[in-house]
Amino acid sequence: MAPTSHLPLFGGVRAWSQNDWTSSDDRVRGGSSQSELTCSASSLIAKFHGTLDIKTLGGAGFASQRTRGEDRTWDLSAYDGIELVIDSADGKLYTLTLKDEILPKRPDGREQSTISWEFDFRAQGRRTIFVKWSDFRATYRGRDKDDAEPLDLKRIKRFGIMIRSFFGDQEGAFALNLVSIAALRTERYLDEPDDEYIDDFLYEKSAAEAASSEQAGGRRGWFSWLTSCIL
């Protein structure tokens, strides 16, 4: 069974471009982490890499890349979720983020906080992950926002890829190599483990992955909210 519709967003048949992305690291809050997204029109892979520092902010730290432009909007209402095709990774826990609202900047030039929609994932080696809309959780300043309005799929304003330290659980060099990010529509969701389509599109986080996400979420602490206003 194949997807009924596949919309390339970044990579794949649409070449990766560094002009689409910019860094949002903890340096804006006095930290020392740094990230890059290395890619070119001639390459099929975009490399999200850098260094995650936990010393400057006392155990906290984050590094991220997000899409540029406040006037960009993606209408993904005809799709069922996001497909990530990963070429290779280091086994660390990463976060895919979406935003459907970007407020005007404050007088000091910093962005106002808005709700982020997050999905944590861990990858090592080549892997394809399908993230249903219901897999994203709403957060505000790093805390779950259970009463958030549904994600406005007609007005996706920003994509982001982030790595957090989770107070020392992760630090140092990191690297995530991405083949593509796309929107996907399927005929139906598949839960049967023997279905051949599951080999190509993974619909559920593993138990270990979910446990890692839950454990890490409990240690987000004060530093997590710092990321919400800039991703």
Describe this structure in words.
- The chain is mainly β.
- It has a single domain (5-228), classed as Jelly Rolls, CATH 2.60.120.
- It has 2 helices and 12 strands; from the N terminus they run ββββββββββββαα.
- The protein has helices at 207-217, 224-228; strands at 5-11, 21-23, 34-38, 46-52, 62-67, 81-99, 116-124, 127-132, 137-140, 143-144, 158-164, 172-185.
- Strands 1, 2, 3, 4, 5, 6, 7, 8, 9, 10, 11 and 12 form a 12-stranded antiparallel β-sheet that branches.
- A hairpin with a 2-residue loop joins strand 9 (137-140) and strand 10.
- The longest helix has 11 residues, at 207-217.
- The radius of gyration is 17 Å and the shape is globular.
- It starts with a strand and ends with a helix.
- Residues 189-212 and 221-226 have low confidence and may be disordered.
Helix proportion of residues, in percent? under 10%
The helix tally amounts to 2
Shape estimate: globular
Task: Report the sheet-strand fraction.
Answer: 35-45%
Residue stretches low in confidence (pLDDT < 50, at least 5 long) are 189-212, 221-226
**End-to-end CA span:** 35 Å
CATH superfamily: Galactose-binding lectin
Q: What is the overall pLDDT average?
A: 81
CATH topology: Jelly Rolls
Secondary-structure arrangement, i.e. CATH architecture: Sandwich
Largest sheet: 12 strands, antiparallel
Helical/strand content category: mainly beta
Number of strands: 12
Q: Measured on Cα atoms, how large is the radius of gyration?
A: 17 Å
Pfam family, one: CIA30
Protein name: NADH:ubiquinone oxidoreductase intermediate-associated protein 30 domain-containing protein
GO molecular function, one term: unfolded protein binding
Domain NADH:ubiquinone oxidoreductase intermediate-associated protein: 17-177
